[in-house]
Amino acid sequence: MSSYGPDDRFLFETAATGLYEEIVAAGGIPTTDERIADGAPLRPAFDLLAELGLVLLDKEADTWVAEDPNSIQSRVVSPISQQGAKLLEESSQWARAFGTLGQVWRRSPPSFERGPFTHISDQAIGPFLTGLVAEAEDELLTAQPQTGRDPQTLAAAALRDTAALERGVKMRTLYQHSARRSSITHSYVAAVTARGAEVRTLDEFFNRMIVVDRRIAVIPGAEDLRVAIAIREPSVVAYLVDIFERTWERGRPFTNRESATMKDIAAEQRAMTIRMLIEGHSDPVSAKRLGVSPRTYAGYVADLKEEYEAETRFQLGYTMGRQGVSGNESNEGRDG
């Protein structure tokens, strides 16, 4: 049986499963059924079911009948799992090979001539980070302020980071609270925490950063994230690590789903929304600071208007001012 990819799974989930359910409910589907005729909208979904072996032709009744999916699943999933394991191993082998070259480069005169700051642009950033993480020996500190990484990027990061964790590298990652609403981020966190990583979230805005073995840090070099700066200056790296450690202490464990924790998180996001309003930031800036979309941020503001019975933002600000609301109330008594 051939290997199946994301496009096949999308067709399977959106159309084929529904058709399968109809076939099961009806006890079969005639070969002459218009839904599976050549050129019919459901024909690709039917062809996938037939290829998977989930429907078989009963020649005597001239009818397609459903098969037990449990007997089919392993034939589809196992090859994909085996392929993933082979790709992960191959990725690790390539990373080790490039790691050797990296050590040679760092000892070479050109490496020192370029100084403690290196600019990396566009498509070179991903391979650079992959090679850098592959060389990690002790610790990875990462900060991801927003959830704006697509599934492909997160999948690549999961392979890269889990390989480091399996080598015994310790890893701590910071997200904003808004990351808790991202299903793909949950999948990534599940993969790395299962191998010993720690992940926390907090309300405050911070910028992207990765620090490897406390000897090199990578930060954005431009607002659009198309340029990164690799920093090897020990004093600057130590300063960035200190900022990370202070921020880490205020974070809340990603895996903690207790009602009290979730209530505190909601209160922190509400308080930050209030601070953004009081400070007069625009919606796009405020949304970015909270790590949410402008639409979600507008929803937060609408909730506050309803809570304080205000029709406009001016009335909202005036009412909160009269009541002494500053947005700093939830910070009192926080761990730190």
Overview of the molecule:
The protein is an alpha+beta fold. It folds into 3 domains: 6-67; 92-253, Endonuclease Chain A (Endonuclease, Chain A, 2-Layer Sandwich), CATH 3.30.870.10; 259-331, Winged helix-like DNA-binding domain superfamily/Winged helix DNA-binding domain (Arc Repressor Mutant, subunit A, Orthogonal Bundle). The chain has helices spanning 6-26, 43-52, 70-106, 109-113, 125-134, 151-166, 183-193, 234-250, 259-279, 283-290, 294-307, 313-322; strands spanning 29-30, 55-58, 63-66, 117-121, 139-144, 170-176, 198-202, 209-212, 216-220, 227-231, 252-253. The strands form 2 sheets. An 8-stranded mixed beta sheet has the order 4-10-9-8-5-6-7-11, with helices on both faces. Strands 1-3-2 form a 3-stranded antiparallel beta sheet. Helix 9 crosses helix 11 (294-307). The protein is flat.
Keyphrases for this structure?
11 strands; 8-stranded mixed β-sheet; 54% helix; single chain; Endonuclease, Chain A; alpha+beta; 12 helices; 3-stranded antiparallel β-sheet
Q: Give the end-to-end Cα distance, rounded to a whole number of Å.
A: 55 Å
Query: What's the CATH architecture of the largest domain?
Result: 2-Layer Sandwich
List the helices and strands in order.
HEHEEHHEHEHEHEEEEHEHHHH
Gyration radius over CA: 26 Å
Describe the main β-sheet briefly: 8 strands, mixed
* Mean pLDDT figure: 83
Number of domains: 3
**Superfamily (CATH H level) name of the largest domain:** Endonuclease Chain A
Examine the coordinates and then state which fold CATH places here, giving the name of the CATH topology of the largest domain: Endonuclease, Chain A
CATH class of the largest domain: Alpha Beta
Low-pLDDT regions: 331-336
